[in-house]
């Protein structure tokens, strides 16, 4: 019996406009009426949640890929970078003029280019950019953007005086092995071909969910999770039922227990109905 459901946000819980479908809102509300805990499991930090999920009235929040987990009443997990590890990331980023953002509980700061990429205008523009550019184009684009980041020294940022839970680095997939050598005490994961999320070693969305399992007194077999990207792989294979969205990466679909419709086509509602968590006629009530 499913007792908790976790949703990735981008590409899963919300559509391309950053909104949850009406069918998604209703399906989550109906699940909660049955006593099922509903939460998110995202690579985003708390500062970027409100505009996406305020109207969903969720119960628990697994943020920064499992590094910061909380409910309205309590912090369940708080696992920030050790000081020496963070110094190494900052030194690496300054030495090679990399575009990087640093995430604390209250904010994300760093690269002005990446901050621009988070605003609404840039997000609308991104809908017209192919989801996956050729590898050589991606690598050259990121290299050209990185060499122009010379004005700011990251070690001077005030945010580094706070606990940092995650860093987001502009980086092509081809650079993964190099980064692993440079940052051996970090876990690297990505949700798109253009940036990589850096968190302390041993972290993941699944680790955050496991902390929720302990907090709520349930088992991982009683968890259902929805996702669409590479940073959802551990989560979908670690819970009782892992659901891939119809728009998910092929690697994600391969490991899922069920592939539902896309985030634009009532995918969450369809999966919850498929597993009998909500009945066919409840959406019209």
Protein model, in words:
- The longest helix has 13 residues.
- Helix 1 packs parallel to helix 11.
- About 5% of the residues have low confidence.
- The chain contains eleven helices and 13 strands.
- The strands form two sheets. Strands 5-4-3-2-1-11-12-13 form an eight-stranded mixed β-sheet. A five-stranded antiparallel β-sheet has the order 7-6-8-10-9.
- It is globular.
- Helix content is 33%, strand content 19%.
- The protein has 285 residues and is an alpha/beta fold.
Short description, anyone?
This is Haloacid dehalogenase. This protein folds into two domains: about 5-80 and about 205-285, HAD superfamily/HAD-like (Rossmann fold); about 85-200, Hypothetical Protein, Haloacid Dehalogenase-like Hydrolase, Chain: A, domain 2, CATH 3.30.1240.
Write a concise keyword list for the protein shown above.
285 residues, alpha/beta, Rossmann fold, Hypothetical Protein, Haloacid Dehalogenase-like Hydrolase, Chain: A, domain 2, 2 domains, five-stranded antiparallel beta sheet, 11 helices, 13 strands, 19% strand, HAD-like_sf, Haloacid dehalogenase, magnesium ion binding, Cof, phosphatase activity
């Amino acid at each position: 019996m499913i007792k908790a459901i976790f949703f990735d946000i981008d590409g899963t819980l919300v559509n391309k406009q950053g909104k949850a479908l009406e069918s998604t809102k209703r399906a989550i509300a109906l699940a909660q009426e049955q006593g099922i805990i509903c939460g998110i499991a995202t690579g985003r930090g708390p500062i970027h949640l409100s505009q996406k999920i305020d109207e969903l009235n969720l119960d628990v929040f697994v943020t920064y890929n499992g590094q910061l987990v909380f409910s309205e009443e309590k912090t369940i997990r708080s696992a920030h970078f050790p000081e020496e590890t963070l110094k190494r990331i900052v030194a690496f980023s300054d030495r090679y003029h990399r575009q990087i953002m640093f995430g604390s509980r209250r904010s994300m700061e760093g690269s002005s280019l990446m901050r621009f990429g988070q605003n609404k205008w840039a997000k609308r523009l991104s809908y017209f950019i192919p989801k996956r550019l050729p590898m050589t184009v991606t690598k050259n684009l990121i290299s050209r953007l990185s060499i122009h980041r010379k004005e700011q020294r990251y070690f001077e940022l005030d945010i580094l005086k706070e606990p940092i839970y995650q860093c987001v680095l502009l980086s092509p997939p081809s650079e993964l092995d190099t980064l692993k050598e440079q940052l051996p005490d970090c876990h690297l994961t990505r949700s798109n071909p253009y940036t990589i999320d850096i968190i302390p070693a041993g972290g993941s969305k699944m680790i955050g969910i496991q902390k929720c399992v302990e907090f709520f007194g349930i088992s991982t077999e009683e968890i259902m999770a929805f996702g669409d990207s590479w940073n959802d792989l551990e989560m979908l294979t670690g819970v009782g039922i892992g659901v891939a969205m119809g728009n998910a990466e092929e690697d994600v679909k391969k490991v899922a227990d069920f592939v539902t419709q896309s985030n634009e086509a009532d995918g969450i509602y369809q999966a919850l109905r498929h597993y009998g968590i909500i009945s066919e006629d409840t959406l019209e009530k």
